[in-house]
Amino acid sequence: MKFIYPEWHRLHHQDQQKALKRAADKSGLPPGSLVHIGAVHELDSRISVVQYNEEKLVEYNELSYTELGRFHHKESITWINVDGLSDTRIVERIGREFNIHPLVLEDILSTHQRPKLEEYDDYFYLVVKGISMHPSDNLRLQYDQISILLLANHVITFKERGDDVFQSVYHRLKNPRGRLRKSGSDYLAYVLLDTIVDEYFVVEEGLDDVFERLEDDLLMGTGSNVLQTIQQIRRELITMKRNISPLRELLTTIKRSDTTLLTESTLRYFEDIHDHVLRVTDTLESYREIIASLQDVYLSSISNKMNETMKVLTIFASIFIPLTFIAGVYGMNFEYMPELKWRWGYPVLWAVFISIGLGLLALFKKKKWL
Amino acid sequence: MKFIYPEWHRLHHQDQQKALKRAADKSGLPPGSLVHIGAVHELDSRISVVQYNEEKLVEYNELSYTELGRFHHKESITWINVDGLSDTRIVERIGREFNIHPLVLEDILSTHQRPKLEEYDDYFYLVVKGISMHPSDNLRLQYDQISILLLANHVITFKERGDDVFQSVYHRLKNPRGRLRKSGSDYLAYVLLDTIVDEYFVVEEGLDDVFERLEDDLLMGTGSNVLQTIQQIRRELITMKRNISPLRELLTTIKRSDTTLLTESTLRYFEDIHDHVLRVTDTLESYREIIASLQDVYLSSISNKMNETMKVLTIFASIFIPLTFIAGVYGMNFEYMPELKWRWGYPVLWAVFISIGLGLLALFKKKKWL
Amino acid sequence: MKFIYPEWHRLHHQDQQKALKRAADKSGLPPGSLVHIGAVHELDSRISVVQYNEEKLVEYNELSYTELGRFHHKESITWINVDGLSDTRIVERIGREFNIHPLVLEDILSTHQRPKLEEYDDYFYLVVKGISMHPSDNLRLQYDQISILLLANHVITFKERGDDVFQSVYHRLKNPRGRLRKSGSDYLAYVLLDTIVDEYFVVEEGLDDVFERLEDDLLMGTGSNVLQTIQQIRRELITMKRNISPLRELLTTIKRSDTTLLTESTLRYFEDIHDHVLRVTDTLESYREIIASLQDVYLSSISNKMNETMKVLTIFASIFIPLTFIAGVYGMNFEYMPELKWRWGYPVLWAVFISIGLGLLALFKKKKWL
Amino acid sequence: MKFIYPEWHRLHHQDQQKALKRAADKSGLPPGSLVHIGAVHELDSRISVVQYNEEKLVEYNELSYTELGRFHHKESITWINVDGLSDTRIVERIGREFNIHPLVLEDILSTHQRPKLEEYDDYFYLVVKGISMHPSDNLRLQYDQISILLLANHVITFKERGDDVFQSVYHRLKNPRGRLRKSGSDYLAYVLLDTIVDEYFVVEEGLDDVFERLEDDLLMGTGSNVLQTIQQIRRELITMKRNISPLRELLTTIKRSDTTLLTESTLRYFEDIHDHVLRVTDTLESYREIIASLQDVYLSSISNKMNETMKVLTIFASIFIPLTFIAGVYGMNFEYMPELKWRWGYPVLWAVFISIGLGLLALFKKKKWL
Amino acid sequence: MKFIYPEWHRLHHQDQQKALKRAADKSGLPPGSLVHIGAVHELDSRISVVQYNEEKLVEYNELSYTELGRFHHKESITWINVDGLSDTRIVERIGREFNIHPLVLEDILSTHQRPKLEEYDDYFYLVVKGISMHPSDNLRLQYDQISILLLANHVITFKERGDDVFQSVYHRLKNPRGRLRKSGSDYLAYVLLDTIVDEYFVVEEGLDDVFERLEDDLLMGTGSNVLQTIQQIRRELITMKRNISPLRELLTTIKRSDTTLLTESTLRYFEDIHDHVLRVTDTLESYREIIASLQDVYLSSISNKMNETMKVLTIFASIFIPLTFIAGVYGMNFEYMPELKWRWGYPVLWAVFISIGLGLLALFKKKKWL
After folding, report:
1. What are the chain A neighbours of B275 within 8 Å (beta carbons)?
2. Do D116 and E307 touch (CB under 8 A)?
3. Residue C330 and residue D325: Cβ atoms within 8 Å?
4. B1 in a domain, yes or no?
5. Same structural domain, A175 and A187
6. A269 and A234 in one domain?
């Protein structure tokens, strides 16, 4: 099933407006009806399942949504991953099989959620945003809504995009002696979340790169679109903050939760993610201050340039305007102008011209204009 | 009954001052006397009632306020909607029939309330603001105060304007298999509030449109009233924030309320609205930052233009002022000016003129002014 | 008794410094000694008393402070109002009669209090600020400290100024069927506070008026003292905020109080005032943002004007400086200047002048400077 | 014992760096060793003691630290005041006599404490800052660290400077009928703190004075160092805030304390100081906003002046440059220039000059530049 | 074992990006695997141990990690200090010997932690940042991550760098009568933390120095890179704040902790550190305001300079342009120009020139331009 669906997260993107429009259109539908609202990428939904315990691990790929019924297994941990949300039947089926609240299903399909955690009696629902640099434009970020359902023996993840953010988790699962194989579904959920948050550091690295180039451009006076770059980053930081900062609250809620889904020892690990998120948001905050400081530098550089232009004008005008006046005086046609008759009038005048010029130059030198 | 009543919510609107004046006038009246204080729109009050349960649905339109007594029915849910507040007898009658506190009645009629929730023993009183784009001016927003009374078997809504924001709810009610028909009055209240909040997304879409045009204008250097548009939007955002942000607190209060009016399962849905409101306010917050960034771009564009003007002046003046001086020198009437007699004096001077001119042009080229 | 006493609330008012000085002088006195510290208005203290219950109402005017002992009556509500604080004997006597804490008496007489509420065992002490436009200067506000003592059967009010803010309450009291006559002293206190808060809306209306004129002035480019007006309003808003915002906290304290002085049903009414105060402070907050936005408009208007000045200069200079140079060239006195001899030299040069002029004009037109 | 010790509180003061250096030096010493770290004033320590009860009062001056042991008297209140901290033996001895924690003794001697309150089992330790105008420079403030130890029957105060801030308390103590003589040590502590806080109002009065002069300077365009004054005050406000605002928290802690050192009735008085501190900090906050607004006025005044300069230049240049061109034209030496031969050429040209000049003047008049 | 590892804390440092990259690389590794992530300094890890009680003190230096097993001694306090983190086997071994959580070991090795405190059943884990001036560049700060493990009888510290910040603690330990020798491991931890925090004051002293030089540069108009210095300090302050402010929270947590690791009396001392940290952060906050104020001064100084340039230009142009025009007039070649024939025409014209010049100079004097 192909489906054209608009993107939400990039501000000022043409598609966003479609998303908004659609959100508005949907306001007529009953809440709880399953419609996919999200970014445009024509991606077929793909289901893959990994079932593992300490002894063995089985992988299933390219499953059909009708096969989802056969993974109710309690002796092993089952991780169901869905890439692409266009096929709403998958979400519907999972909802039926695992008895998920209709509002959760609806939220999985709407890819403009704030990161949040919802606790239900026998499962947790987590939405977070994967962030990556845009492949072709290093000033743009790409957002990927990732929903995680944590059940007693299952973890079900939904990813808007087909990227390979979870690739490393697959690798680690294959190591039979890893802690991951010995732990429950809560530890898998932790590893997934940890992987997503670690991506944020990579993105911040990319921004750091951009800052450095910006600074060089500012120092060299090159880069005619410095201001636009600054504004672009300012906005990316605004969007990034909006998509990351709710995570702090989310992780505090996890810490305080008295659920049986999370073991005491896994909670320690979630606290570790909390620390990472605090570090990411601290860095974001300082990036905002740095970008403000770069903008200040840019604005003063404009003022400084104007000042320099003014000085050039002033030096030229102030030197030659008086000289022109004097030349004008001796161009007058009065009958009685004794100087005109003097033998050394003309050379003397040149001497006057030159001394006035040098005098003014000395003055400007003293004013530090030269 | 026709009535001229002033508008409150648009800042700097002439009518607002009348509203303020009236509020002041009213300060002499005993608190609790029913007077309509609000925006000017000559709208006759219209009452419509929908009575429904799982089996059947009956609609009544254009009722008189005297007929309001006959809807005390406990087997079905009754939704009374009042469009237009000019006829205070309706509010008075409803107050008497359903035993509503006089302060609530007064608040329903004053259309300059902050969004709020008041819990009474056997009903809830909610005030929220419907927001829509002004039909003729896409930089102006229109506010519509909507009061919702939630009783055990009744929902009573009062709308300042006669718009059709609840149209979609009517349609959904008519679907006999919808969840709405199977649920209580609390679910109806949820659907109404959800509909109002969904409108906010449409408004934000409109603002996004305006941002895009603003950016284009800024880039092209066109749009002489860019600054005024920016200021206008800044103010709309201020007003919008004032009318939306109290909703967060309101929905938190609902969540924490230990009332019997709301069933456990409906509370989940209200939490969903809470999420939506958080998303709306997050977006508003980033819009405020974006508009600030646009203003910064505008201000630097002025500085840049001034700089460019200065450069043109400096180039012209710096090239021609020295040349004019030299021409002035050879326009002097000294008797002994040997150059004047030279055969090639004039052509040589032209060569000097041209080399000075080209030299200065090269200098300005080096300074990146050309 | 006449008394010269300095004003506190107007920043940068000469008298304020006297107030500060006096506060400093008082630092030598024992805390608790009754001295009037406040604004300069030579007002004799005036006592008036209204005693009422559901059946009857008796008014006493121009009483002497010695007569205050005879109003200990439990069958009716007694409202004692004191206008003007110059006669400290009144406050002293009331303190003795009703057993009021010396610090409260001292606070009543110092008219530079922050709005606050103090709960004592058998009475409440409230200080709030009445605000009104200055009669002669619509950019200045006037503050009036109003102290309210709420006892079981008495309400005692002290007003710094002799204005008629409570006039409407008198009128309402005279209506024998009003709710006021049937309720206790707590309801009277509510009505008084409500009256004071309603005045704030009138003041905000006045500011709104000023905003509108400011905006017109900014658009028209008239109004040489726009900046001063903006700064003046900025400060008035600072002062207003300082005098109003503590009310929020004050009313929250009332709500949470477990006193017997306030009945359950009156508390509802105080909550209503809380809503009003929130509205007032929200509006104040947006006024602050609006004034900041007006200032931004003002500053860019200066930049724009400078830009325009620059353009005029650049156009004139850039057109005529090259022409003057050419004219200067043909004013030179070289013997061999063949052009000077040409028959059409002069007209041809005029053609050159005109084409250069028109060319440059076209250039500036293209740059959108004309 | 003479001792050179550096000052802490004045930012950018040479001595401060010494203080910092010393603090760094001290980092090698064990915490708890008694060394005086503070501002440079060569002041001998002076001890004075007042012992009083309702019946009698005895004063001791210029005591030696060895005599401190004889004031353990329970029938009267003993106030020990130490002016100047250079003699660390006094602090040591008091610590031993009254069993004070070593960290408290250390804090008494380091005069760069934040205002704070520490509760110990049988005493309270309070540090606050006395503030006064610098005697010779009305833009500088002077800080005086005052430590107050409140015991059951003793109050011990340590003052960094030898000023007479407590003079008025001495006077009041001498009044045998004053409340002070009838109350316990807690009331004395209150009176001392009240006296210190009252000084803040005097300082704010002084700042108000400076504001007024600044405003006049700004309006008159005089005062070349307006910006420096503004920056100086900005910093003084920063320092003042840092030294006053912790008092709010301190007084809240006192209110909530369940100590037996403070009687219920004295707590009321401390609440009164809390109000004063809130007023002081509110005023400080508005001073910060006022200073920001003054800076805005200053910056726009620069822009305005530049604009005016530009206008003068533009008017002169725009009028005379075209005229000069025309004069230049008729200074050309073409053989065939018929106008030169006309009888009325010269007067007509003057008419042209004058009309062009007047025309341009009219234009600038219309632009409101004149 | 040599190891190249990138630095984290200095923004815009090339190595930081490597750190980020490595953090990203590590996202593929299982959480809990011990890899050193940190700044580049090729430092061999060095272990030193001090074992002491009231009677004796033994020191061990240059230990191998294999010898760490023999310090499980309960009669004395053991302080193990590790300088340099390149040898991960040390951390691993300590983890095994003292039963430390793997996440803690991981955090010790990643030197880009936020300061934090983690409470475990039988130990505390503290991370703080040591800060020092860069030895060669007084505008740059150096960060040193210091991990402190507090056990019942052991304190284990890990330092990223090999500096001598703990030197003074060694000295104090050697004093057999010091409080340190008589107290438990908690007091040692306090002394170590106190030493680190005291270093912050030294750093602030250095910044103060820089401020002073900046101010001088601003006043003298020298210092072409003032803006860059300001921006550099702004960023250092941002980073510093990020590394210090979490300490406040950390120390509050310690205070509230109900652990048996800290004795009541040592808690008092930790409160003292809390005060110091508050003072440091208060100072940082005012430094941020001071740097903002310096930037304002810098920006106005640019505007002022431009204004001055404009004035020079205007004065020259306004005086000589009219004079040049007049000279141009009498350079015209009209046949009938009577003035040219006048005997005193030329001297009179000079008089006119001089009076116009002086008149304009007087005008500019009046405008305060000279």
Report:
1. 113-114, 116
2. no
3. no
4. no
5. yes
6. yes
Question: Which one of A320, A333, A366, A369 would you mutate to disrupt binding with E, by most E Cβ within 10 Å of its Cβ?
Answer: A333
Residue B99's pLDDT is what? 92
Same domain, D99 and D237: yes
Residue-wise DSSP of C136-182:
S-TT-EEEEEEEEEEESSEEEEEESS---TTHHHHHHHH-TTSHHHH
The total number of structural domains in chain D stands at 2
pLDDT exceeds 80 at position E116: yes
DSSP label of B110: B
Q: Does A318 touch chain E (CB under 8 A)?
A: yes
Predicted local confidence at residue B364, as pLDDT? 87
Residues of B in contact with C208 (CB under 8 A): 11-12, 16-17, 20
Q: Is A239 on the interface with B (CB under 8 A)?
A: yes
Residue at token pair 């992988």? A59
Residues C202 and C325 in one domain: no
B68-72, D241-245, D359-363: range with lowest mean pLDDT: B68-72
Choose the closest CB to B328 out of A103, A310, A328: A328
> Which secondary structure element, helix H or strand E, spans residue A77, and what is its range?
strand A77-83
Kindly state whether C308 is in contact with chain B, defined as any CB-CB distance less than 8 angstroms.
Answer: no
Chain E interface includes A365 (CB < 8 A): no
Beta strands E141-150 and E116-119: pairing type?
unpaired
Listed by number, the residues of chain E in 162-181 with a beta carbon closer than 8 Å to a beta carbon of chain D are 168, 171-172, 175, 178-180
Q: Which of B299, B330, B353 is the last residue of a domain?
A: B299
Which of B12, B313, B320 is facing C322, going by the closest CB pair? B320
Phi, psi torsion values for E168, nearest 5 degrees: -65, -30
pTM of the full structure: 0.79
Inside any domain, residue D5: no
To which residue do tokens 């506010």 refer? B143
- CATH for C318: 1.20.58.340
* Final residue belonging to a domain, choices B277, B299, B321: B299
Q: Looking at the structure, do residues E314 and E291 belong to the same domain, yes or no?
A: no
Q: Which pLDDT tens digit goes with each residue over A172-181? A: 898 888 888 9
The domain of C343 spans: 304-366
Q: Tokens at residue B98, please?
A: 């359903």
Task: Give me D338's structure tokens.
Answer: 């018929």
* Candidate from C27, C231, C239 with C-beta closest to D199: C27
- Are both E252 and E345 inside the same structural domain? no
Residue E256 domain-assigned? Answer: yes
Please tell me if residue D44 touches chain C, with a CB cutoff of 8 Å: no
Dihedral-angle region of residue D162 (phi above 0 means left; psi in -120 to 50 means alpha; beta otherwise): alpha
According to DSSP H, which parts of chain A are helical? 14-26, 88-98, 102-109, 167-174, 179-182, 185-220, 226-244, 246-256, 264-329, 338-341, 345-366
Instruction: Give pLDDT tens digits for D92-129.
Output: 999 999 999 988 999 999 888 889 999 888 999 999 99
| Residues found in chain E | 370
CATH number at residue C275: 3.30.460.20
Q: Is the pLDDT of residue C29 over 70?
A: no
Alpha carbon distance E168, E195 (integer Å): 8
Is D9 domain-assigned? no
Name beta bridge partners: B150.
Answer: B124, B155
Please determine, for residue C3, whether its predicted confidence score (pLDDT) is greater than 80. Answer: no
**Rg of chain A (C-alpha set):** 34
* E319 and E282 housed in the same domain: no
Task: Provide ipTM, 2 decimals.
Answer: 0.73
Residues of A with CB below 8 A from E242's CB?
282, 285-286
Shared domain for C178 and C234, answered yes or no, is yes
Model confidence at B260: pLDDT above 80: yes
CA C343-C344-C347 angle, 5° bins: 140
Residues of chain E found within 8 Å of residue D221, distances taken between Cβ atoms: 368
Contact E246, E115 (CB under 8 A): yes
